Amino acid sequence: MSDPMKNDIISQPEFLKKLMKQYIKDDFFSNELKKAATCLKESKGPILFIGMGSSYFATIPAVNRLCANRQFAFNPPTDELLHYQLPVIDESFTIVAVSQSGESIETKKVVERIKDKCRVIAITNNPQSTIAKLANINLPIFAGEEATISTKTFTNTLLLLDMLVDSIFSESVDGYCNLINDFDVLAAEIDVLLSQSPSLYDKLAKFNKLTLIARGNSLAAAKMGGLICKEGTGLQPAAISGGAFRHGPLEIAGPDHAAIILADTKDKTFDLMLKLAKELFDFGSKVIFVTDQINKDNYSFNYIKLNKYQHLNTLFSFSIVIQILTREIALRQGRIPGKLNKISKVTRVE
Q: Which domain of life is it from (predicted)?
């Protein structure tokens, strides 16, 4: 059976390296990144992130970091912004338009309507796309051609947005050179996770309901996972924050429910996520707890222990775990992993 998704997953560390090197060693792209950061730093009003699908979810960590540093940023659903909220945008706003294709219909329409009113920074994988050309500054993600559902375009977008935010608060992003070794470790971790994916799937056993749960920056990986799992498997998993899960959805816990919980030990809500995992297990749910630190004595449920990286955010590993599990579910269903059957990779119509 054809398996193009596996190639997309495996290639992510190399494309992350390529992006990093372009923005550190190439003077043109380094200067463009600095210009974009200056634009955000000097914004007279809110910083508005727009995008659809996985491009939208990739903005979550950037918004969190900016708000944590007392810079007003937000990311409303772009399809709703387009039709119901655009009048609030004025010349004080700065827009960061994220679209891997550069052609996503709602994002493109928002940019078309506000480009003469406020500055626009585009994050795309296609410098010749409509959104890239309409923007004041375009920052390519250098993810190459992606054969299937979102994998490397998502992780490259995460890295570029992280570099952009860092550039607001630092004179240089040269420190990202320290990630080279981490990317090599990530490549080895991908090989291990791929080899373990059949047993990970078996630990979920039979389920009728699947939930991906995370908080903070990790929520970006959970939301992306919920989307690509729908696209790639035909299942209907829910992706939700740990707090929101308690407000009703917790009622679905039980033997026919599976939960994949992403918990970064550095996150301020780690203990809350661990508490939730234990409760779900006690209710009979099948739990896979994904984290970068394990106390085996305290965990009676299944877990995935990820590498602890020197510099790389655990979010990248979280994203890849969900991609690999999505691929495994598709294989078990006899599907070609990542292949879209009813829609195209780029949504060009509302």
A: Bacteria
Q: What are phi and psi of 349, to 5 degrees?
A: -130, 150
180-332 in CATH: which number?
A: 3.40.50.10490
| CA pair distance 41, 22, nearest whole angstrom | 22
SS (H, E, C) 201-250: HHHHCCCCEEEEEECHHHHHHHHHHHHHHHHHHCCCCEEEEHHHHHCCHH
Rounded Cα–Cα distance for residues 271 and 291 (Å): 12
Backbone phi, then psi, for 103, in 5-degree steps?
A: -130, 5
Rounded Cα distance, 101 and 107, in Å: 11
Residue with tokens 């608060």: 169
* Structural domain spans, the chain: 4-172, 180-332
In angstroms, the CA 194 to CA 197 distance is: 5
Tokens of 155: 């992780």
The C-alpha atoms of residue 191 and residue 221 are separated, in whole angstroms, by 19
**pLDDT 10s digits, 237-266:** 999 999 999 999 999 999 999 999 999 999
Q: What is the pLDDT of residues 201-238, one digit of tens each?
A: 888 877 889 999 999 999 999 999 999 999 999 889 99
- 304: phi then psi, degrees, rounded to nearest 5: -120, 120
Class of domain 4-172: alpha beta
Q: Contact at 8 Å (CB) between 336 and 325? A: no
Please check the confidence at residue 128 and state whether its pLDDT lies above 70: yes
